[in-house]
Design brief:
Elements lengths: L4 H11 L11 H29 L8 H22 L12 H16 L7 H12 L1 H10 L10
Helix pairs in contact: 2-3, 2-4, 3-5
Length: 153
């Protein structure tokens, strides 16, 4: 059986809590963190994967309907994210955590396939905060030489 990384992190956070908790100890904060972790994976990253997958697919296997649907799902997700990002600094509650770890790659790639517009200033500011974190900034710097391989259209 292959366990999902979020479940493993949540388990370890409870079994062997360290200096940084990825899921808040309080039940209210914990369920909200899990909700946003799943939201970024299921409503942002999955749509991005559909769009990118279609870009690298041979012409005879393109799925314009699926790509259009994925863009529509991203637009809906952006609306939800904008409303929430305007209310809080991190999606894991008061501190950076598991939901923010899920958000970083999802939003970074989402912005490449369907750029945030003027209607998403809070979402843009949130991605900027994520990108400024030393760990994510390092990932972006180390990945920079490979960004040219990302299918932009």
């Amino acid at each position: 059986m292959r366990s999902e990384s979020s479940i493993v992190i949540d388990y370890l956070d409870r079994l062997r809590p360290g200096a940084v908790r990825f899921t808040p100890a309080d039940p209210e904060g914990a369920w909200r963190t899990r909700l946003w972790d799943r939201f970024f994976d299921l409503h942002v990253q999955s749509a991005v994967q559909k769009i990118v997958g279609d870009r690298i697919r041979p012409p005879q296997y393109k799925d314009p309907f699926g790509v259009e649907d994925a863009h529509a799902k991203l637009s809906t997700a952006y609306g939800v994210l904008e409303a929430e990002a305007a209310k809080q600094h991190w999606f894991s509650g008061g501190a950076f955590g598991l939901a923010d770890c899920a958000a970083a790659p999802a939003l970074s790639y989402a912005d490449k396939v369907q750029p945030f517009g003027e209607n998403q200033p809070a979402t843009r500011a949130y991605l900027d905060r994520l990108s400024a974190r030393p760990s994510f900034a390092r990932v972006l710097k180390e990945a920079a030489p490979y960004f040219k391989l990302f299918p932009t259209s």
